[in-house]
Amino acid sequence: MDQSITLHRREFLKTTTGLLTGLVAAGSSLALLAPGRAWAVDLTALSSAEAATLMIVARTIIPHDKLDDAAYALVIQAVDADASNDEKTRQMIQEGIAGLGAGFVGSAESERVEALKKMEASGFFQTMRRKTLQVLYANPIAYAYFGYEGEAFSKGGYLFRGFNDLRWLPEVPLADSGPLPV
Amino acid sequence: MARIDLNDDGAVVIIGSGAGGGTLAHELTRRGIQVVLLEAGKRQSMASFSQVPGEAFQQLTWLDTRTQSGNWGTARDFPGLPAWHCKTVGGTTVHWTASTPRLEPWELRAKSTYGHVPGTSLIDWPISYPELKNYYLLAERRLGVTRRNGMPGLPASNNFKVMHAGAKKLGYKRVHTGHMAINSRSHDGRGFCIQQGFCVQGCKMGAKWSTLYTEIPSAEATGKLDLRIECRAMRIEHGNNGRVNAVVYRDSQGQEQRQKARLVCVAGNGIETPRLLLLSESAKFPQGLANSSDQVGRNYCHQIVGYIWGIFEKPVYSWRGATVAGVVEDEVLNDPQRGFVGGYRIELVALDLPTMPQVGLPYGWGRDFASIMEEYRNIAGLLINGEDMPRSENRITLNPKVKDAFGLPAANVHVDEHPNDQALRKHAQGQMSKMYQALGAKRTFPGPSLPATHNTCTARMSADPRDGVTNGWGQTHDIPNLFISDGSMMSTPGSANPTLTIVALVLRQAEYIGRQMAAGKI
Lengths: 182, 522
Known about the structure:
The complex is a heterodimer.
Chain A: E1 4-6, E2 18-23, H1 29-33, E3 38-43, H2 48-61, H3 69-85, H4 87-100, H5 109-118, H6 123-136, H7 140-146
Parallel strand pairs in A: 1-3
Antiparallel strand pairs in A: 2-3
Helix pairs in contact in A: 2-3, 3-4, 3-6
Chain B: E1 12-15, H1 19-29, E2 35-38, H2 53-60, E3 66-69, H3 73-77, H4 110-114, H5 129-143, H6 158-169, E4 175-176, H7 215-221, E5 225-228, E6 232-238, E7 244-250, E8 256-260, E9 263-266, H8 269-279, E10 304-311, E11 327-328, E12 344-348, H9 356-360, H10 367-374, E13 379-386, E14 395-403, E15 409-414, H11 419-437, E16 443-449, E17 482-484, H12 499-518
Parallel strand pairs in B: 1-2, 1-9, 2-5, 3-15, 9-17
Antiparallel strand pairs in B: 4-11, 6-7, 7-8, 10-13, 10-16, 11-12, 12-13, 14-15
């Protein structure tokens, strides 16, 4: 495990209830960022099996097939943290997982979509959708995958790093544009 | 910085430090007038602005409990967040995207121009365009607006190149990188725009005008300003003579304080300003302060705002560069042949990766949603900024059932869209989609209506005291030493982003207050 990445440092005093682990896919965007080949997320409210089910739920809600599992694991970690901090949330999440039934994890995507559509109005689904949208795109793994370059102040902005490098359309006449600052 | 005693009844108390309150504080202090400036939020700086979008949102946004109702899309898509404005020193000028067009002369004569539009409460402004124009000229110099006074336009970004090419395909003529309060070259002791694309998170270059690092430090330098941060106004009090004489607030320690005042100017943005007037009800003013007309909180306008996105074959990298530096002005006209009155601007827009799926895209999930995000590099963006119709029942009220953290009734924002609003949005979305389709976009699609940032008209200026809350100076009809000093005083919203107009109105108001105080009238 000394080669593994702990995705987020947690409070040490909390009892670990489960573990979510995975491998960094070769050639993936995470492989460029990560020092090791394996990652691990420890859980403080959910069991390993519950977290694994939520991974499938998140991947069904927002399916980016080539995006590393580690990015989705950050979503599950955030859900687990909320469940750990709030008893009602924990109940809602665990009941939601139970409501999916044992066959959910192994079923085809179309069947999983059908199952989730039926519970679209539920607090469980709404929470999972919201958390997935909040967390999945807000981390370095996603930035690398989607090609998003993030903050630029520390690098002098995009002024000399491609803010106007589009060449597949005509250049804008100076009257409608403006000079580069000097 | 001045320290003004709580019992000093000679000072002007301004509530809110944004475009209106921050500018007014500078204008009054430089005239030698003592000002207490109450700001509910904390003080950030170019150094402290977070560059993590989610953190920046938490750092700057007014997130107090609010409720909403009505048929507008924001109530459905963002139930807990009807409006997106700031709680921080500098107010919403910290996160604004700095588009600073003027209103058109005919937009100040909305009722006369549009005629009778059933279901609206349109009025004409009590001031003329030539009168306002003098102050636009002053405001444009103050803010360093591009394409004015020799300040060059900002250079075209990738996202703007797409906008420009599409607009030209449709035959639009007035297409450029906008009138922006963003330095295209060093100005006013501040640097130039380095195209960070992080306008909304607070400009770490200070190239974008904000009262945080322009007007407020200038006011502090006069030695006449007492800025009190994390101080939340709770109510405005008055004497037996019906004039206001104090503001009660909670300080940063949660202690209640009472600052005496010669004059009170309310600049808390278009939702909190009427809320504070309503919260200040008394035996003498049972409907709230300055509300004998029952117009406080009514006629709430927010402008029609919404996205059109286009997915292209090749990369756009829309996040690189000043967020809203681009405009098409050809639809800023009143042409009822289009099926609606009033005009709209087409403005440039981009969203950072974490924000895009949360506020940029319509509700959805699954393969289709993911397939849009897979194209993030290749997405170009446009934003509508159009005039919405004032309606008497679109209003800010106190929610008797929901309280904020201070135990005060939360603001409820009610908006039922007028058919004119919907026709304008439909037309704008159609034109914007055509712009992208003319360039061979693979797909175009609309985003949701955003939480409102252009909150206006809720304590509006009116020639007839029965139609509004203030006269043409922003002085309330009922109480001569109570002023409205933000977008709440606008009579109608027009189709221009409101900040330049707010600054112009406040520059004009400051002259009036100075004259009236010198003459001993207030």
